[in-house]
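Appendix B. One record, verbatim.
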Amino acid sequence: MVHLRKIVAKLRNLFGNKRAEEDLAREVASHLTLLVDDFERRGMSPEEARLAAQRAYGGVEQAKQAHRDERSLLWIEQTMQDLRYGLRTLSKSPGFTLTAALTLALGIGACTAIFSLVNAVLIRSLPYGDPSRLVYLYTPNPQFKLPVEMFGPAYADFYDLKRDSHSFQKMTAFGQSVFSLAAQGASERVSAARVDGDFFRTFQSAPELGREISPGDNQLGHEKVAVISHALWQSMFGSAADVLHRSLLLDGKNYQIVGVMPQGFEYPHSTDLAYGEPQYQTTQVWIPLALTPHELADRDNTSGNAVARLRPGVSIAEAQAEMAAIMTRLDKLHDPQMRGWGASVKNFVDSTVGHVRSLLWLLLCAVSIVLWIACGNAANLLLARAASRMRELGVRVALGAGRSRITRQLLTEALLIGVAAGAIGIGLAFAFLRLLPLLDPGNIPRLREASLDTRVLLFTVAVSLLTSVLTGILPALAVSRINLTDFLAATGSRSVAGAHTRLQSGLIVVESALVVVLLASAGLFLRSYINVESVNTGFSQSTVTLNIGLDPRYTHPQAVAFFRNLFARLQALPGVETVGAVNDLPLSNSEDLRMFAVDGYPNQISQLAEGRWVTPNYFRAMSIPLIAGRLFTADEKPESQSIIINQSFARKYFAGRNPIGGRVSRQDDHTRWSIVVGVIGDVRHNSLEEAAEPQIYHPDMEFGGGYIAVRSSLPAKPLAATIRTILHSLDPNLAAGNIQTMGDLESEASAPRRFQTSLLTVFAAIALFLALVGLYGLMAYSASRRTREVGIRMALGAQRSDVLMLVLKRAALLLALGLVTGLVASWFATRAIQAFLFGVGRHDPITILSVCALLAVSGLIAAIIPACRAASIDPMQALRTE
């Protein structure tokens, strides 16, 4: 009870009752003085009189506490009265209440939804033990001028680092693979990670069932065990309790299931590794790495991914210094032409979410602007409502209500609206999160895990309370500065209405400026997205592609025969024009770089080009144009070493001379040359937003696995079903991966930009709608307050067009002020989005002019309705209006 009294007293003090303590102290002191005088008259000494007075009064502190309890109970009673009165008042104006609540709910709902995404991606802890101690290990080589993330340590270097380093508590190496999983007469592609024996110990993640992969499982001959994900356990085995007694058939080999990971652990995801397996989404199976002696000793050709856990007290800088010292020694063991390997230790969490952190904070800032605009609109509504209640509030003051009580009443009503808006906002956020996966760009980790958890709900409560204060404080302050009793004499109303209108006008200007910032940002994002979609990719969007990888059951001659049979079956389908194949498909996130030299060019040791191995019909299947020379033919001889290059290669390395007949060094032997027989058009391979790099195409006359491209006049879906049927008839244990058109791949490549553009455009549209509603409400309120003035003007000869222009001029002035302020603000604000733009400057004049025109036209349309209403007023009725 004592704690409750303290809390109530603190809350009471927030509403301006601190002076009560001083009044109480003076009152108690006066009573004590009277008692002391009375006891002194009875013959007591001053000290005896003072003690007797305190005993008679019950003690100063006891008296104060009794008074505090009385005032606390009174404060609670008054608060309950305010709540009841507020509910009754708001229920009598359902239109106003619903409008204000929905206005705030739009802002709160958008803010809650984006915060739930920020919470899932940036705030919520990863499902690993102390993820802040995890780091990625890289061994970059500066001479290749490639991103650090492309250089995972060679396995020989990794195990030497593991043996010699002291900064790491645990270290693990792993690689990614995609297998055909056969089950019940069908097969599907599953993502798998090949891990060493310390993988799960490094992440400090234990299986939900069974055991993890141990060091003993990584020995050749003992590697046929598997740990599966929780999702695969549910989908394939129906969460069966006896799953540990079952096995998986992966690429024709049986793996005994020894463990099931808990829900949420699916590392690595497609977003965890910058240059991972292109067909990867989430890991469904973990199997032993089980390296051969050759792989363990190889320092120049085989490499994997490496994650380590720092020892307690060891910083990333200290770990990198030690790793660099070790790599300096190990670098001498590499091939002399490949030396220069260094060390890089990167924070695991930053590497996982760092690439989307700025985007998420940008979106959160955008919805915060929407929330501010919603607060401004709600404050405008409350200001208008307070102005219409001045007489009522004046009566309450005349009957004894203090100014603080009036202020508290208005804040209580704002709080009730805020709570209702928060409840509606939670529903809107829930609906938004249900739709969000439809925009999944594929590069935001754990996007589908965004939910309304406890942290998000507490955030929503805090935002609701904050918006209640922000929307209620302006009307409360405005009322507190007015002598409300003047309204009983019907004086001062005009000056008060004018003050309210000026404040409301200021809010509209601020809202318009914020809308300009959002619209300008959304416009720049939209222009960038259009530019990306307009990029010439260099291939046909209708080509159907698929990936097929044969398992170890097939020898090389068997694999070649299999694909020749498959190509023949596909080519024989009605409507199929051409069938080709390539090792790395454009926009598939797969890459193959090769070193080379060009005859007659000042070559460098670290020259790299993208290498492709294609069948003769690949270019026709993809509709890649031939610029010069010829394409590969069906009777191309491997020993001829013919190659085809793209335009970027020709421009850079054959500038000013004919590339046809030019010589490029062979990959397997740099002392021998290949002959350029053709030049094809540039193809966007890595990204839609990156210009094509130099590419070299080699003929692959014995295709044994990779991507197949089918050019056909048939619809994509029926053709994909037919391809699956043909593949199943050839081998039921094989599964085709990623059967889709090149248009689908292009759509996936532009998905991140589409995601950010769509969200920012939606938020800008909401902000524009709220601003227009606010402008309409202000014009309507202003016109209603000036009804008598309009009647007088019209009685004195003013035309309806004059009244119409009177209202529209005021709206135009507010919009102009908002536009100017917004353009100045956007000049600085768009600096934050410069890194997100493509093919457009942050001060693009087309975007700025479009934003100005959109806001001006929309604002005038919103103002014309109350303007027409004001112009249609009957002068005689207007003159009778008080």
